[in-house]
Amino acid sequence: MKFPHPVYSRHVLQPAYVDAQTCFFEPMLAAHEAHAIMLAECGIITPANAAAIVNAVASIRADGVAAYAYQPGIEDLFFRIEGRIIELAGADDGGNLQLARSRNDLGHTLARMALRTRVLDIQEALLELRTAVMTQAQRHLDTLMPGYTHTQPAQPVTFAHYLAGVLTFLAHDQAKFAAAYATVNQSPLGAAALTGTGFPIDRRRVAALLGFDDVVLSTQHAIGGGEYLTDVAFAVQALAIDLSRMTHDLLVRATQEANALRIDDSFIQISSIMPQKRNPVVLEHLRARLSRALGYAQTVVMQCHSIPYGDTQDIEDEILPPTFNALAAVAECLELYTAVFETLTLNKEHLRRQASEGFTTATELADTLVREAGLPFRLAHRVVAHMVQRAVQDGISSSQLTLDRLQAAARQVLGRELLFTEAQFRQALDPVHFVAVRTGEGGVAPGATAVVLTALQNGLDADAQQVATHQKLSTDAEKLRHMAAERILAR
Description:
- The chain is mainly alpha-helical.
- It folds into three domains: 6-99, Orthogonal Bundle (Fumarase C, Chain B, domain 1); 105-114 and 164-349 and 455-477, Fumarase/aspartase (Central domain) (Fumarase C, Chain A, domain 2, Up-down Bundle), CATH 1.20.200; 362-429, Ribonucleotide Reductase Protein R1, domain 1.
- It has helices at residues 6-41, 47-63, 77-89, 91-94, 103-139, 159-184, 203-209, 219-224, 227-253, 281-303, 320-343, 348-355, 362-373, 377-393, 403-414, 422-429, 431-436, 446-490, and strands at residues 144-149, 152-158, 186-187, 214-215, 261-262, 345-346.
- Helix 2 packs across helix 3.
């Protein structure tokens, strides 16, 4: 039976070909142009030879990707395009395109070119989400709410303070994608099969023509390395995990019982039978899609495990679908999160009341006993803990606490009452006071949180500039390549 077996064609070659059409058509044409230009500039082929290839590439680009559908018997898109170049440029000129190059280094180059575009798209989407979250944070510097530890009310915070934490992990995740981009944006071209080439090529020239920051110096690693794939997968995993934790919080606080925040009506679905239902299903979809992204990313990681350190399909055609699917799932999530945050509203008065429930200001009362009554902290902690325990036993809420109860606890723990006034007692239990006095670096006080937000905004601005610089690099490379091609054609 002739190659390819119909089952092999159906399950392997055709899907890989369609993926290549979707992701690699334009990168492949750009790589062919750059390689031909470099070969001519290095004197390996004549300018006329290079011009014939450049003209053939231009003709293929004008045809469009749809003109190059899968045909049985042709192994992949590379051979289909190479065959067409030979038809258009002639066997002598077109046949020189693959001098000093292999499908190995070309394949990794195309994967990196397609990946870097998607990684930059993710970074841009992250910037938009960070901007939306920052807007909410600036709006809620004074919005009190309970902060939680171990899922229980712990201390009063502000929504801005919580979001400053969210913005911090988003900045860290942005840095992970920036690092992944730096790894991805290195050119393997010139490695050929894995040992380089005997022709006097200029690897850095072709890298510049394609918008790469650098070359993968080791030709072995250019072909065998998969860390540019796993770095992207790790960045996806980190972001998905961080966003999933925030999603958990949002879902809990959107419940009717919590009544803390309101997801906009444009994201709400109703029940087919229960008229009262208001289901914030967008958060459920996000949670599920983050799981999807994690699954795809883990597939990438596992596929790089325990394989030969060299040319292998595990890190070529077979790994691209889960890699691109992971990035696509994350991109969808980022766009959805941005829209959710842009339309999110809070039940501020309800949150303010909740901030003082559950004895959340007990820490400040203990701190005040240290400052005003001269107690060591551990003794102050014991007195307040005793008061709270008795209040819980007696069914007394936070708002019903009295100075008499504190003094009773002091007599039980210390054997004496405290020199402590009603005004001091009331101030110590006030959630506004609790927040206001925590003015240290990174603290919950509005002024301290504002300083954190300013630093985070500066980081956001710097990241936006970096993304713009990387986007410009790709655009400048295209202009550089076109200028070089025009010079070749003009000879």
